C-alpha cells in the first residue's frame, strides 16, 4: 500500500516564502567595509531575492545555469542564496580567498555563466577575468565604489526588475547550490547540493539536538558563506526565522565581540582559529563586554581543543563541536551530552563534548577497517569514517576519477580516521593524510596539537609527520608562543608526557610567529610538510 501524503517537493522557494511572509519583520544586519551597520528585514530580503530571480531570468539564466558569487558574509549573499535557486539557477559560491588562478580554474570547471561580485573584490576578479568565461558580471556596491564601465550594477538591475515572480515547478532533486571543497589536502572538488538536501539539512539544523536554531535566535555566522554551503546558515535561518548578523569582510576578535554585544547575538559559528582570538580578547579585557543572555558557539571545520572549550565555559559561552564536510552540506555530527553523562566526572564530560559527536538524525556513520570490515563501536578501534544520508554527496561534479571516494555500497569515504564509542559518539583521530606513521603505529597529530594548545605559554601548535630513516615518520611540532611567554622544548615534552606515551611525543619543536592557514582558516599542513621536507633528525 502506498502512503497517501501530498507529493510536496522540498525546495528553496518554500524557505524564501516562509521567511518573507511569516518572519517579515525580523532583522538582517550587515557590517559594511566602512564598519557601518546596515539593517533591513526578511521581508526586504524576500522582495529583493525575487527581484534578483526576475533580473537573472531576464538576462537569460536557464534552469541549472550556474551563477557564481565573489561576496563576503553580507545580505546580498543571502539574497543570492535564496533568489538564484528559487529561479531554477544554481548558486556557486566562489572562495574569494583563493589565488586568482584557482578561482578561475574552479569557475571554469563549474561552467559558471554569471557572476555577482563585490566592488571591493573587483581587483581580485580583474586578475583572473581573462581566464574566465562569464557572460555577465554584476557588481554589488558593497564598498560604495562607483560602477566601472563594462559591468552591470546590482542595484540598477534589481530596481528595474519586478518583485512579482512566479517560481518554476522545481523538482526537489534539482541542483540548488554548488561549492568546492576548500582544498586542505589537495585540489578542490565540486559538490552540488539539491533543493531536497539543503531543505532537509536546514530542518535538521533547527532540531534541538543539532544546533537548535530558532525564531528566538540571533545568528552570527563567522564561517564564510563561501565555505561548505555557508554551513547551511542562509537556509536554516530562513526556515527558522532567526535574526541574522553578517560580519562583512571582518573577523577581528574585538569587532566580533562588539557585534555580539550590540546585536544581542545568541548563536555564533566558525572554525577554531577565529575563536582562539576571541577567547584571548575576552581574557585580556575583563568586563569590557557584557553578555547577560545565553550564547551558543558552534565550532567546526577542525578539531577544537579542550583549552578552547574550558576557556569559553569560563566566560559562560556554551561551545559545541561539530563535524562536517563540504560533501555533507556540511552538518554531519555534533556533540551534546546524553543524560547519563551528567553524572560523569568533569574530565570525562569534556572528553565527550570534544568528540565529533553523534551523527545528525538521518545521517548514518560507520568505521571501516583497512581490510574492509566494519569496526565495532568500542571507542577504540580506529578506521576510516564513512557516512551516508540525504544531504551527503553521492559524487563530485564532473570528476569521475574521484569515484573511489564512495564505497561499492554507496557510503562516502570521508578520509577521516575515527572511532565510535558505545554511546554512538564519533571521535576523529586525524585526517588520514595527517596521521603520523611511526614504527608501524599511528600517532594523532590533532591530539598532540590540542594538548599543546592547553599549555599556558602556547598560542597555537600544529604537528606534522616528517620522514625518518628508522621510524618512517616522526612528529615535529610547530609552535607559536603567546606574546611575552617562554617555553623550552623539554618543558613542552614534559607537559605532553602526562597524556602521551614517550614514543608519541614530538621529537622536535620549532618555534615560529605564525602557522600557515588555508583560505577558510584551518592549519595548512601541506605547506608545513613542504617546509620541513628536508628536516634532518639528530641521530
Ligand atoms: P577541506 O577538506 O578542503 O578542508 P572541508 O572544509 O569540507 O574541506 O573539510 C572537511 C574536513 O574538515 C573533515 O573531513 C575533517 O577532516 C575536518 N573537520 C571538520 N569538522 C571537524 C571537527 N569538528 N573536528 C575535526 N576535524 C573536522
CATH topology description of the domain at 8-202: Rossmann fold
Computed structural class: alpha/beta
- CATH class type of the domain at 8-202: Alpha Beta
Number of strands: 25
Broad shape = globular
Cα-atom radius of gyration: 23 Å
* Strand order, sheet with most strands: 2-1-11-10-12-13-14-15-16
| Helix share, percent | 25-40%
Q: Cofactors and ligands present?
A: adenosine-5'-diphosphate
Count the DSSP helices: 15
Description:
The protein has 539 residues and is of the alpha/beta class. Among the domains are: 8-202, Rossmann fold, CATH 3.40.50.12780; 435-531, ANL, C-terminal domain (GMP Synthetase, Chain A, domain 3, 2-Layer Sandwich). Helix content is 27%, strand content 24%. It has 15 helices and 25 strands. A nine-stranded mixed beta sheet has the order 2-1-11-10-12-13-14-15-16. The protein has a seven-stranded mixed beta sheet with strand order 7-6-5-3-4-8-9. Helix 14 links the parallel strand 24 and strand 25. The radius of gyration is 23 Å and the shape is globular. The N and C termini lie far apart (73 Å). The structure holds adenosine-5'-diphosphate (ADP). The site of adenosine-5'-diphosphate has 23 residues, from strand 14, strand 19 and strand 20.
Amino acid at each position: 500500500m502506498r502512503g497517501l501524503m501530498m507529493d510536496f517537493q522540498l525546495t528553496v522557494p518554500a524557505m524564501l516564502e516562509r521567511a518573507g511572509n511569516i518572519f517579515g519583520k525580523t532583522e538582517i544586519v550587515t557590517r559594511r567595509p566602512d564598519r557601518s551597520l546596515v539593517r533591513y528585514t526578511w521581508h526586504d530580503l524576500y522582495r529583493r531575492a525575487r527581484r534578483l530571480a526576475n533580473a537573472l531570468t531576464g538576462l537569460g539564466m536557464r534552469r541549472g545555469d550556474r551563477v557564481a558569487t565573489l561576496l563576503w558574509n553580507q545580505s546580498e549573499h543571502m539574497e543570492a542564496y535564496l533568489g538564484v535557486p528559487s529561479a531554477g539557477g544554481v548558486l556557486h559560491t566562489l572562495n574569494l580567498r583563493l589565488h586568482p588562478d584557482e578561482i578561475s580554474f574552479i569557475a571554469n570547471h563549474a561552467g559558471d555563466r554569471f557572476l555577482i561580485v563585490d566592488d571591493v573584490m573587483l581587483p581580485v576578479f580583474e586578475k583572473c577575468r581573462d581566464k574566465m568565461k562569464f557572460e555577465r558580471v554584476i557588481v554589488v556596491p558593497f564598498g560604495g565604489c562607483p560602477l566601472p564601465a563594462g559591468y552591470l550594477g546590482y542595484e540598477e538591475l534589481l530596481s528595474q526588475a519586478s518583485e512579482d515572480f512566479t517560481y518554476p515547478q522545481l523538482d526537489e532533486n534539482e541542483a540548488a547550490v554548488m561549492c568546492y571543497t576548500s582544498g586542505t589536502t589537495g585540489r578542490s572538488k565540486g559538490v552540488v547540493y539539491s533543493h531536497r538536501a539543503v531543505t532537509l539539512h536546514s530542518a535538521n539544523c533547527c532540531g534541538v539536538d543539532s544546533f537548535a536554531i530558532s525564531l528566538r535566535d540571533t545568528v552570527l555566522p563567522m564561517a564564510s558563506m563561501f565555505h561548505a554551503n555557508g554551513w547551511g546558515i542562509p537556509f536554516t535561518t530562513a526556515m527558522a526565522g532567526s535574526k541574522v548578523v553578517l560580519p562583512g569582510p571582518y573577523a577581528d576578535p574585538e569587532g566580533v565581540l562588539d557585534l555580539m554585544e550590540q546585536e544581542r547575538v545568541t548563536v555564533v559559528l566558525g572554525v577554531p582559529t577565529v575563536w582562539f582570538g576571541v577567547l584571548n580578547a575576552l581574557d585580556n579585557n575583563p568586563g569590557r563586554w557584557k553578555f547577560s543572555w545565553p550564547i551558543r558557539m558552534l565550532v567546526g571545520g577542525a578539531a577544537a581543543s579542550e583549552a578552547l572549550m574550558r576557556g569559553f565555559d569560563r566566560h559562560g559561552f556554551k561551545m559545541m563541536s561539530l563535524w562536517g564536510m563540504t560533501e555533507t552540506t556540511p552538518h554531519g555530527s555534533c556533540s551534546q551530552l546524553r543524560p547519563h553523562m551528567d553524572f560523569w566526572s568533569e574530565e570525562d564530560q569534556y572528553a565527550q563534548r570534544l568528540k565529533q559527536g553523534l551523527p545528525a538524525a538521518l545521517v548514518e556513520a560507520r568505521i571501516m577497517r583497512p581490510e574492509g570490515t566494519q569496526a565495532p563501536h568500542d571507542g577504540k578501534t580506529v578506521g576510516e569514517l564513512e557516512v551516508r544520508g540525504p544531504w551527503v554527496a553521492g559524487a563530485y561534479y564532473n570528476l569521475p576519477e574521484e569515484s573511489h571516494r564512495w564505497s561499492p555500497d554507496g557510503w562516502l569515504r570521508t578520509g577521516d580516521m575515527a572511532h565510535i564509542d558505545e554511546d554512538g559518539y564519533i571521535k576523529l583521530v586525524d585526517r588520514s593524510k595527517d596521521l603520523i606513521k611511526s614504527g608501524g603505529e599511528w600517532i594523532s597529530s590533532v591530539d598532540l596539537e590540542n594538548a599543546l594548545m592547553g599549555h599556558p605559554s602556547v598560542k597555537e601548535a600544529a604537528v606534522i609527520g616528517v620522514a625518518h630513516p628508522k621510524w618512517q615518520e616522526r612528529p615535529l611540532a610547530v609552535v607559536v608562543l603567546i606574546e611575552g611567554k617562554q617555553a623550552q622544548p623539554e618543558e613542552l615534552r614534559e607537559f605532553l608526557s602526562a597524556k602521551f606515551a614517550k614514543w608519541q611525543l614530538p621529537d622536535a619543536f620549532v618555534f615560529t610567529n605564525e602557522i600557515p592557514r588555508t583560505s577558510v582558516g584551518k592549519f595548512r599542513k601541506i605547506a608545513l610538510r613542504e617546509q620541513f621536507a628536508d628536516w634532518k633528525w639528530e641521530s
